[in-house]
Design a protein that fits this description.
Distance between the termini: 41 Å
Mean pLDDT: 79
Shape: elongated
Order of helices and strands: HHHHHHHHH
Amino acid sequence: MYNSVLLRLGHRIGLRFSKLYKTSLIHKISSRIRKNFTSYKEYSLINKIFQSLRGVFQASFVYRISLKLLRIFDGLLGFLFTKKTRLTAGSEIANSLDLYSIDLRYGLRLFYESLVFLAIIFIPGRIFLGFPSFKLSGILLVLGLFGILISGKEFQIVKTSKFLEFFIDIFSLDQGGESWW
């Protein structure tokens, strides 16, 4: 294949065209433009930003401000958490809410109860103030009541789901060994 006449002919034609291009007017114009752009690029502020080791967003003013705000917010939340633990040391309400954080099932139960409560609050809000729709209240109420109805069985439903099992089986390794047929 390497001794092919067609390949040799194509290679020779390519070499001739490359020699013609190096002496052409188009090459002279494009090389002059390229040289000017490289000299402009060296002093360009945009190029310095793109070539820096830090990313473009990290070099920006917005990044520094948002990072400072997030650190202040994190410090504030840490401070409030320590104050909360001191103030609610013997509180019955805090102890009952801590019950919901023991297990994921309890946390989901609180989430479903919150959806029902939110739906109940939205109904008078729609009647008196004219915002959230009855559809949203109805959806939240149905989701909350359905969640309370299946509370604690979510994991069992997910584990026994044939739909999810089908997709998990696609990505599981075959343990058949040599006699896979």
